Amino acid sequence: MISKKIINCSIALIMGGSFFVIHDGIINHLTEIEFKFYHHIFYTSPWLVLIIIYLYFTGNIKTYLRSTNYSILVFRGFLFLPLPYMLFLSLQNISLPEWTTLNMISPILGSIFGIFFLKEKINIFTSGAIFFGFVGVIFIIQPGFQDFSFYYFFPIYGAFTLALQSLIANKYSGITTTLGFFVYGLIPVTLFSFFLFLFDPLINYQLMFISSITGLIALFGVYLVTYAFQNSQNHFSSIFALFYLQILWSLLIGIIFFNEYLNLIAIIGSLLIVLSGLLSLKAQNNQLKDI
What we know:
Elements: H1 4-30, H2 37-57, H3 61-65, H4 70-80, H5 83-91, H6 96-103, H7 106-117, H8 124-141, H9 153-171, H10 178-199, H11 205-230, H12 236-241, H13 246-258, H14 264-290
Helix pairs in contact: 1-11, 1-13, 2-10, 2-11, 4-9, 4-10, 5-9, 6-8, 6-9, 7-9, 8-14, 9-11, 10-11
C-alpha cells in the first residue's frame, strides 16, 4: 500500500508541473516582445521578499531558513542561476515543442542519478514509466529538429539541472525545510536579476502585473516540486516519471483556450503518458516492498 506521504509527493509534483505549464506558456508569449528574463524575475521578486519579511516578523525565520549545510544550498541556488536566461533565449530561437521535448529528458536523468547516488532499486515499472512517458512526449509534440541548433543545449542543460537540483533536495533533505530549499534556491538569480534591472529598467504596469502573477504561479510550482522531491525518499525515480503529466495539462490548455485539437499520433502519445503515470504508481508500490 502506497503511504500517504508518497501520495502527497505525487500530488505535489503533478500540481507543480501544471503550474510550470501555465508559466512557460505565458513566457513563450512574452519572449515575442522586448521583455527580458531579469525584468520577469525582478517583477516576481516582491513575493520572495514578502515571504522573508513575514518569517522575520513572526519569529520563524530561524525555524524555516536555518540549515546544517549552507554550502549545499548555495551550490543548488547557483545551478538555477542561468536557467531563466536560457529559457528566454532558447524560446526565441527554437520552437516550444522542441524545447519541451528536450527538457523532458529530466526523468531519464533523474532515474540515472537515483541509481548511482541514491542507490535506488529501479524495477521494470519504473523503467516502463520513464520510457513510455518520453515516447508519449515525442508523439504528442512531434518536434521538427530539421536543423541542428546550438540552442538545443539550453533545454538539455535545464533538464540536467532540474534532475540535479531534485537529487540534492532528496539526498540532503534533512539540512533544511522545504521553504529553506525554496528560498535559498531563488536568492542568487533574484539578486543577479535585480542588478541587471538597474542597468536596463522596464517600467510597464501591464507587464508588471502579468509578470508578477505569472511569477507567483511559478513560485507555487517550484515549492511543490521541491517538496515532492525532498520527501520522496526511496521513490525518487518513480516520482520523477509523473513529471511527464505536465504535457497533458499543456494539451488541455491548448484545447480549452486555443481551440487546438489532437491528431491520431498525439492521441496515442496522450495514452502513453497516462500509461506512464499508472506505471509510476505501480513502481512506487513495488519499491515499498523492497525497503
